[in-house]
Each structure stands twice: as C-alpha cells, then as structure tokens.
Automatic annotation (TrEMBL):
It comes from the Bacteria. Residues 3-142, 164-297, 316-451 form the CstA N-terminal domain. Pfam families: CstA (PF02554). The keyword Transmembrane applies. It is found in: Cell membrane. Keywords: Cell membrane, Membrane, Transmembrane, Transmembrane helix. The chain crosses the membrane at residues 66-90, 123-143, 163-184, 191-212, 245-263, 284-309, 329-348, 376-395, 407-427, 434-454, 466-486. GO terms for cellular component: plasma membrane. Belongs to the peptide transporter carbon starvation (CstA) (TC 2.A.114) family. This is Carbon starvation protein A. GO terms for biological process: cellular response to starvation.
Length: 496
C-alpha cells in the first residue's frame, strides 16, 4: 500500500507544481472568451467553471482509465509510479495546452488548430486519422458500457444473438444522437451533474474501500509476487513484466490514465463554453489529474482482487474484474451503483466524441450548424458509420479485440499531432525555450506508438529488435522535423 500512497503523493503534489508552471508558461489573461464573442446558444454557451470542469472530466474519462489500469497492473507495482509521472508531464500538460490554444484561437476545434500550426499534408493525415479515431471511440463506448450493463447489472448473457443486447445498445445510441445534436447546455450541461455524482461515488467508494478492506498490494521494493490463498499458487508480476515488453505495451495498454490523444478533441469543445482563460488550469489540467487518480484507484483495486484470489489475473477478464472489485468492496447495492459509475464514464465520452466529430467536420467543410436539420443530417451519416463498426465488432468472434487494439494505438498516436501544434505555437509566441515541455512526451510517444505498431500483429509484425530501432529513429525524426519546421515558421513570421 505504501507504493500506492507514494504514487498518489507524486500525482497530486506534482500536479500542483507542474500545473502552476504550465499556467505560467501559457499566460492566461482577462480577454473575452469565445463563449461571449461567438455566443450562438448551441456550441458557444457560457457555463460555470465547476460545470465545465465536470463536463470535461466526464468527456475525457471513458473506459480507458478503468480497463487500461486493470490490465496494466499485471506488470507490477511499477504502474503506481509510471501512471502519476506520465500523467503530470504528459497527459495533463497535453490537455491543458490543447484546450488553452483552442480557447485563445477563438474556440477552434483540433482539426483547425492542426491546420493552423502545421501544413496541408499533416492536416490531411490528421483529419482522416482523427475522424477514424472518433468513430472507433463512438463504437467502443457503446459496446463496453452496453455489455457491462447487460451482463453485470441486468444479468443478461450479452451475446450478439440476444435481443436485450441490441436494445441496450439502441438506448445508448438514442442518447448519443440527442447529445450530439442538441445545444450543449440543454442536454450535456444538465444531465452531467447527475452522471458526475454517480462517478464520484464509484471512484471514491472504491478508493476508501481499498483501505477499509485492507487490500493487499505488492510494493515496488519487494519481490513482485504474491502467494494466493489456499492452493492457488503464486502470482508473479515480475514474470509478466519480463515476458510482455513493458515498453511499449504498458503505455499503449494503460492509455487514458497517462495520456490520450482523444482528450484534445474534447478540451476543444469546452473551450467554447468557458467564461475566462484563468479557468483553464482547473478545467483542463486538474481534470486530467483526476482521471489519473481514477486510473490509480482501479489499478490498486484490480491488484487487490488478484492477490486475494477473487479474480484470475488475466488481461482478457478486465471487464469482469470491474464487477468483482465493485461488489467486493461496496457490497451488492453499492456495487451496482459503482458499476453504474463505470458505465457512465464511456457513455459520457462517446456522446461528446461524436459531437466533436460533427463539429470538426462542419468546421472543415463549412456546414452551418445553427440549423437543426443540418445538424441532424450530418449526425445521421456519422451514426450510420458507427453502427457498421459496432455490428462488425459484435458479430465477429475476434471483432472487439481488433477494434480495441486499433482504438488504443490510434488514441496514443493522435497525441503526436497535438504535441506538434503545441510546440509550434510555443515557437511562434515567444516561448521556444519551453518547447521541451511538449517535445519530451511527444518524442516518448513517437517511440512507443511506432515501436508498438511495427511489432504488433495488427501492424507490421517486425521482430522486437527491429521494432525498437525503428521506434528510436522515428522519435528522433519527429523531434528534429518539429524543431526545423517551427524555426522556419518563426523566421517567416518575423519577416512579415
């Protein structure tokens, strides 16, 4: 338990220091925000800081900070240290600057931000990549909450042939459609406080339960193994660590608790509803830190039930592990409420993922969104594509595994575009000496994502040695090209 507590101290202590530093580097001021200068009653709507913060938290926190850490903790207690460090210098910094740059640039969505701070080639790749990711997010975040609700709340079998499965999917679909099309303050702004209360009960309930129940956790400095009750044998985290290539697999698996490229598409939405730039640290940076806390809690909960022998330590059983943790810690009734909190997370990410896709497409192709008919028409096309992906994932035996792997990899890869934009923005705004802030995590994730896809069976299936070499070269090229391009743009800007 000591390693877990140290990790929490790193998370919150580091966030207080580095979050303040990020704010100082950006320099928020008292200028009018897009919520006022472009107020339209649909997407540009002034909302209170607490509501923006809560909406952003629910937008960014899907099943990633739950399912990811449940699988990632199999690598051992090192997860309790890598999650908070990565969250502070990578994920929270990424979210803060992405959101603040969009806010400063008039509430632009990320595709337009990438267009402004890169070139047509990069923008084109980003636009296609981002659209595909948001479609995958929409499908994944119908599939996972739907199956958890079907199997662990209502007691159905959750099979593809069960009518109940598709009824639950349909109900989530209808909610997504409403949240995608209607004004943000009328739907999301009103229902999210309820969702937020359920989420807080879930996360805090499990957190307190870890101490009340005295869950056994392996320490970083001990032998990374645990003797299971009865004749269960020994659970060796070190064996899993050594056999499964911690780098890059851990960082792809844990995903959202450390860094998520998807988040930049969500902070862009909130940039249109903020009353002041000075609310950015709480709304963007601190909410990502809270997602890191959620990831830490679920990593600890999973390790606890693994060590108690209540659940087999198997990454493929991550969804079932959620139910075991909730019901063991909070009892039958509290467990169901906690499960509802877990279901809320992906639903509140999926709705705004599709909303941000609608906004991005409409902004890129100049489709007027003040008309309800045009919003519905664009949403219909988006939802048809999501439905096709969902049916494929559910009807094929290995469909969801394929969907999840591409989702996890593309989610991390998308962050590289945001780090590029942040770096160029810094060079153009007299902050080049701070460009190390996005370039360090950007270089790391260039290495991680390229190494992973080079080796993965869903990628190029190259042996690990070759994949690592390719990853190192890709990271070096990534940093070198950004610095060259940013300096070139800065020089041209000075001549104008």
């Amino acid at each position: 338990m000591i390693t877990f507590i140290i990790g929490l101290v790193i998370l919150f202590g580091g966030a207080a220091l580095y979050g303040k530093f990020c704010e100082k580097v950006f320099g928020p001021d008292d200028r009018k925000t897009p919520a006022y200068t472009k107020q339209d009653g649909v997407d540009y709507v002034p909302m209170r800081e607490w509501k923006n913060s809560l909406i952003n938290l629910l937008n960014i926190a899907g099943t990633g900070p739950i399912l990811g850490p449940i699988q990632g903790i199999l690598f051992g207690p090192i997860a309790f240290i890598t999650i908070p460090i990565g969250n502070i210098i990578g994920g929270a910094m990424h979210d803060y600057f992405s959101g603040m740059i969009c806010l400063r640039d008039g509430g632009s969505q990320m595709p337009e931000t990438i267009r402004k701070y890169s070139n047509k080639g990069v923008y084109g790749v980003y636009q296609v990549f981002c659209s595909l990711l948001l479609l995958l997010v929409g499908a994944v975040f119908i599939y996972t909450p739907g199956d958890i609700a079907a199997t662990q709340v209502f007691g159905f079998d959750g099979s593809a042939t069960s009518v109940s499965t598709w009824v639950i999917y349909g109900a989530i679909f209808v909610y997504y459609l409403i949240a995608t099309v209607f004004p943000i303050d009328k739907i999301i702004g009103r229902i999210y406080p309820i969702f937020g209360a359920i989420l807080l009960f879930s996360a805090l309930g499990v957190f307190v339960g870890l101490f009340v129940k005295g869950y056994p956790l392996v320490e970083l400095w001990d032998n990374w193994s645990w003797t299971l009750p009865g004749d269960g044998g020994v659970l060796s985290y070190s064996d899993y660590f050594n056999a499964n290539h911690f780098i890059p697999i851990f960082f792809i698996t844990v995903a959202c608790g450390i860094l998520s490229g998807f988040h930049s598409t969500q902070t862009a939405i909130i940039s249109r509803t903020m009353k002041s730039e000075k609310q950015g640290r709480m709304t963007f940076y601190n909410m990502m830190v809270l997602e890191g806390f959620i990831a830490m809690v679920w990593a600890a909960g999973a390790m606890g039930v693994y060590n108690l022998g209540l659940q087999t330590a198997d990454a493929s059983l991550a969804t079932a592990t959620i139910g075991v943790v909730c019901k063991n810690i909070l009892g039958p009734v509290g467990g169901i409420i906690a499960l509802l909190g877990v279901i809320v997370l992906p639903i509140t990410s999926g709705d705004t993922a599709l909303r941000s896709l609608r906004l991005a497409i409409s902004e890129s192709f100049h489709i007027d969104q003040t008309s309800k008919a045009k919003r519905m028409g664009l949403a219909a096309v988006i939802f048809a594509l999501v439905a096709v992906i969902l049916v494929f994932a559910k009807m094929n035996a290995n469909g969801f595994n394929i969907l999840w792997r591409y989702f996890a990899w593309s989610n991390q890869t998308l962050s590289l575009f945001a780090f590029l934009a942040i770096s160029v923005w810094m060079f153009e705004n007299g902050k080049a000496k701070f460009a190390w802030m996005p370039l360090i995590p950007g270089a790391w994730y260039a290495f991680v994502t390229i190494t992973y896809i080079a080796n993965a069976k869903i990628g190029f299936n190259i042996p690990w040695t070759g994949a690592y070499i390719i990853g190192v070269c890709a990271a070096a090229v990534y940093v070198g090209v950004i610095i060259w391009y940013a300096n070139k743009r800065r020089a041209l800007k000075r001549k104008m």
